[in-house]
Design a protein that fits this description.
The protein is α/β, with parallel strands linked by helices. The protein has a single domain, classed as Alpha-Beta Horseshoe (Leucine-rich repeat, LRR (right-handed beta-alpha superhelix)). Helices cover 14% and strands 13% of the residues. The chain contains three helices and eleven strands; from the N terminus they run H-E-E-E-E-E-E-E-E-E-E-H-E-H. The protein has a nine-stranded parallel β-sheet with strand order 1-2-3-4-5-6-8-10-11. It is elongated. The model has no long low-confidence stretch (mean pLDDT 94). InterPro entries: Leu-rich_rpt (IPR001611), Leu-rich_rpt_typical-subtyp (IPR003591), LRR_dom_sf (IPR032675), LRR_domain-containing (IPR050216), LRR_R13L4/SHOC2-like (IPR055414). Keywords: Leucine-rich repeat, Repeat. This is Leucine-rich repeat-containing protein 57.
Length: 238
């Protein structure tokens, strides 16, 4: 893309606080953006070929939304932790394998989307994200949900299309968790912790496409308590 086109984008962004440059074949995070570290609230560079997010991303202190879906990122710089106002981080369709521990410092974060990456272990260290509403880890390679899941403050966890065969009962201790999506995994009926049905806040538990018939959930102890929560939530939004 020509310099003049980029220049006009930068001029517009200076006024609006929004920089959007999608599907332009960019190979790297535009260096020119660093002139706008004081203004930018939204950056969307989806559908490019960016392989590295530079450490300089930590300078965008006003940033509230960072979207880099469908690029070629394999990791994130630890400097991302400096984005104290960041509310939405969307990195679907990249090649990320692990998250930096510093991600837990993004105290304002509400939405973290990592669908369609190469993550094989459930990320821990996100329990400090007290405002997190959605954690989307669908379409990865996660095989088990560990004890540490209980630290999460999120309202929804999406784990559809992973390889999960082990689900820790600790998930029922997530204080705000209402929606748990586990469609198309490797769960057996015996791997479903009864505490999710009996003792949790979960009012939508989605498990289609596992190694059992969904209707067999009805036979489990606690199913009636779960259905009460499910029905009450449905009525609220009807």
């Amino acid at each position: 893309m020509g310099n003049s086109a980029l220049k006009s984008h930068l001029e517009t962004s200076q006024k609006t606080g929004v920089f959007q440059l999608t599907e332009k074949g960019l190979l790297e995070f535009p260096e020119e953006l660093q002139r706008l570290t004081a203004n930018l609230r939204t950056v969307d560079l989806s559908g490019n070929k960016i392989e590295v997010l530079p450490a300089a991303v930590g300078k965008f202190l006003q940033l509230k939304t960072l979207t880099l879906n469908n690029n070629r990122l394999t990791c994130l710089p630890s400097e991302i932790s400096q984005l104290k106002k960041l509310e939405t981080l969307s990195l679907n369709g990249n090649r990320i394998q692990m998250l930096p521990p510093s991600l837990g410092q993004l105290k304002a974060l509400r939405t973290l989307c990592l669908s369609g990456n190469h993550i094989s272990e459930f990320p821990t260290g996100l329990g400090s994200l007290r405002n997190l509403d959605l954690l989307d880890l669908s379409r990865n390679k996660i095989q088990n949900v560990p004890l540490e899941v209980s630290e999460l403050q999120t309202i929804e966890i999406n784990l559809n299309q992973n390889q999960i065969s082990i689900l820790s009962p600790e998930v029922s201790k997530c204080p705000r968790l209402k929606v748990l999506r586990l469609e198309e995994n490797c769960l057996e009926l015996s791997s479903i912790p009864l505490s999710i049905l009996k003792d949790s806040q979960v009012s939508l538990f989605s498990v289609e496409g596992n190694l059992f018939e969904v209707k067999n959930l009805r036979d489990l102890d606690g199913y009636d308590q779960y259905m009460e929560r499910f029905t009450a939530t449905k009525k609220k939004f009807a």
